[in-house]
Specification:
Layout lengths: L13 E6 L2 E6 L2 E5 L5 E3 L5 E6 L3 E3 L1 H10 L2 E5 L6 E5 L6 H12 L1 H16 L9 H22 L19 H24 L15 H8 L2 H4 L1 H10 L4 H15 L2 H14 L31
Parallel strand pairs: 1-5, 2-6, 5-7
Antiparallel strand pairs: 2-3, 3-4, 7-8
Helix pairs in contact: 2-3, 5-6, 5-8, 5-9, 5-10, 8-9
């Protein structure tokens, strides 16, 4: 029998870990991956925000249940982590946070305020006045294209465009492979943070109509600071396994930029721009999946 404990807050966790070619199980109360020779490697699942499960992995019911209990997001991905097949984590959206997010997204005036706040956060510049969301999306797309060109020039990497065929991934050029690998790392930890805070990944503001629309919205706020420079750096080096090298550097960058400490406060800041107060939680509502309780001192002085 496992002993239940308090989940570790997202900001105190390691960001991501990729697992491949092994059976993931719970043995002697520990979350482990077992290779074909029977060697067990312990995975500190309670201290990780997101586990990326690559081809060649199998996972037991006990392991999924333990990951759910400690609030670790499981993401089933393709080789190199560049395709997402499925994901799952307990908690999900809370009714009060979900209603707040949905109200902002469904009201065109409030949604526009949130989109403008995202634009300011991303580009550190006021967007043009009297523009619709569709017009701002177009302006944003043009600026992003220029940022890709500028970064490619800075890192001296040949660049055509952010274009590739997911069904023919092997023929994608190295820069696009690196960018996709880096972005999927970021999507994983953004989804983990969104779920942990009680919001819904599908209710987006710039992106809409996709299961991870809000994940893409939040990830876009950090891409050109955290992941895209890494992708172009790796593309310039042109290693034999660009996706693997990109993922490793992204993990280090997430720690360096303290990204897990910033995602949830950024979500709250962006949604606050809508100008309405979040509703009070119902007395019967469950707590957020991974609570961030305040105490005396910092994380090094627990009470």
């Amino acid at each position: 029998m496992r002993i239940r404990g308090k989940p570790i807050t997202i900001k105190e966790r390691h960001s991501i870990l990729f697992l491949e070619k092994g059976q993931i199980d719970v043995k002697d109360g520990a979350f482990v991956i077992i290779d074909k020779t029977g060697i067990r490697t312990h995975i500190p699942v309670g201290g990780i925000a997101c586990l990326m499960l690559e081809p060649g992995t199998r996972i037991t019911h006990d392991a999924v249940a333990l990951a759910a209990e400690v609030g670790c997001l499981l993401v089933w991905v393709g080789e190199g982590g560049v395709r997402l097949y499925a994901s799952g984590q307990p908690g999900g959206a809370r009714s009060d946070r979900l209603l707040y997010q949905a109200k902002l997204a469904l009201d065109n005036e409030l949604r526009l305020k949130v989109v403008r706040a995202m634009y300011i956060f991303r580009f550190n510049d006021e967007p043009p006045q009297r523009r619709s969301i569709e017009q701002l999306r177009g302006i944003e797309g043009a600026r992003v294209k220029e940022l890709y060109k500028m970064m490619a020039k800075q890192y001296r990497v040949p660049w055509r465009a952010r274009i590739y065929d997911p069904k023919n991934w092997d023929k994608a050029d190295v820069p696009n492979k690196c960018i996709s690998a880096a972005n999927h790392c970021l999507y994983g930890i953004c989804e983990a943070a969104i779920l942990a805070a009680g919001y819904a990944p599908a209710i987006g503001f710039i992106h809409t109509g996709k299961p991870l629309s809000f994940v893409y919205d939040i990830a876009d706020l950090f891409k050109f600071e955290v992941t895209v420079p890494i992708a172009f750096k790796v593309a310039r080096e042109n290693p034999s396994k660009p996706a693997s090298k990109t993922r490793l550097l992204c993990r280090n960058s997430f720690r360096e930029h303290r990204i897990l400490k910033r995602i949830i406060p950024t979500i709250e800041e962006i949604l606050h721009a809508g100008g309405i107060e979040p509703p009070k939680a119902h007395k019967e509502s469950v707590p957020v999946a991974i609570p961030n309780e305040k105490g005396i001192g910092d994380v090094g002085h627990r009470n």
